[in-house]
Amino acid sequence: MFCAAPGLKATRLDSDTGKPSWSLPAGGGSTGGSDVAMPPVLAGGLLHVIAPDSGRLEALDPGSGAVRWDVPRSAYASVQYTGDLVVLTGRDGRARALDAAGGRERWSHRSGSVGTQWVGAQGDEAAGLPVLSWALSADGRSTRITAYDRDGGRWLWTERLTGNLRPAQLSGGVLHLLSTDRDQYTDAVVRLDVRNRTVRRLPLDAPVMQGQASVSGRTVLVSGSGTGSVVALDAESGEQRWRRETMASQLSRPVAAGNAVYVAAGDGRLLALDARSGKVTGQTRPRMDDGAHTYAPRLAAPVVMAGGRVFGTAPDGSVFGLDAGRAARW
Fold first, then answer.
1. Is 123 helix (H, G, I), strand (E, B) or coil?
2. Distance from first CA to last CA of the chain, Å, rounded?
């Protein structure tokens, strides 16, 4: 298991004991960016890290932490991963697609607009799907989605969808986007099938604040802050299967595994919900920082691994592992 933290570029932890096998301190001085560490990403067989006080994206050997290749990060507004590609987007809208294993440029493309970002499928599924760019119109009333061939960057098609939309996940050949209303609440999930370009809107019974979403099979899970909403929708019909208000003021993206849904709360708790009913089946104690800063601007989603273990992080800097089958005793 790999982690990062302010002042720590990356560390590898034994998933059974939690003991580090190697750790790399961040260095290079501040670049004026956020002091929030970006989570490491495994892509192309390497561990990709961006330390908040470093100006470079580095690809590390997962076994030793040695740098295999690196590129300047400061010139790019965003970094996205899809399969074996790393897509770096410049502030002028130009994107560079690099091979995640070797750092070689596969293709580059100018999207034509500032603020364009990219999204793609993950894992083995990515090889059969295009890479997508998305950009919000100046008036916020429409969202442009453009598909490119992932191997050469060739333009395939463009769709302009109604509404202020933000991609959540591309899976099963369908791009799931979150719709934002005038009050900046998430009010629906929009599905764009990237194979036949059909569009379907799945409205929420009631909007949620700061919505995040994930897809698991035929279920779309949406979490929101404020009252800590977690909503389960049928991905095909849009029927709301259940909704649970956890009363957590801040939640992470929900993660489904087996018969459970896991979310992290802003106070450091990890919550388990029954995937069929939404009932809370277990939660850990809060883990808050004793210092002056007790708010985490970004909550890492829980990680579920083979063997029935679930891992979480907390504002106090701790990383913890739990038996997913004993949530009631957390």
1. helix
2. 21
Instruction: Return the percentage of the chain with pLDDT > 90, whole number.
Output: 77
Residues ≥6 apart with Cβ < 8 Å to 77? 89, 90, 91
With contact defined as beta carbons under 8 Å apart, do 273 and 281 qualify?
yes
CB-CB contact of 205 with 243 (8 Å): yes
For residues 25 and 283, what is the distance between their CA atoms, to the nearest angstrom?
A: 32
Among residues 220, 217, 261, 258, which one has the least CA distance to residue 239?
Answer: 220
Token code pair at residue 289: 């920082």
pLDDT at 30 over 60: no
Q: Residue 47: which residues within 8 A CB-CB, separation 6 or more?
A: 2, 10, 40, 41, 59, 60, 61, 62, 65
Query: 115 falls in which pLDDT band (50, 70, 90)?
Result: confident
- Please report which helix (H) or strand (E) contains residue 283, including its range: strand 280-283
Q: What is the C-alpha separation between 131 and 121, in angstroms, rounded?
A: 8
State the residue for tokens 């099963």. Answer: 172
Q: Look up tokens 């004993």; give the residue.
A: 326
- Percent of the chain past pLDDT 70, that is, above it, reads 92
Check: CB of residue 272 under 8 Å from CB of residue 280.
yes
Q: Which residue has the tokens 């440029």?
A: 105
**CA dihedral of 165, 168, 169, 173, whole degrees rounded to 10:** -20
Determine contact, residues 249/256, Cβ cutoff 8 Å: no
Among residues 283, 290, 281, which one has the least CA distance to residue 318? 290
Distance (Å, whole) CA 177 – CA 161 = 10
The strand pair at 255-257 and 94-99 is best described as unpaired
Number of H helices, E strands in the chain: 0, 29
Task: Look at the pTM and tell me if it is higher than 0.85.
Answer: yes
Look at residue 95 and tell me whether its pLDDT is greater than 60. Answer: yes
> Exposure of 120 by Cβ count < 10 A (0-12 exposed, 13-18 middle, 19+ buried)?
buried
Tokens of 152: 């050469």
The SS3 call for residue 32 is coil
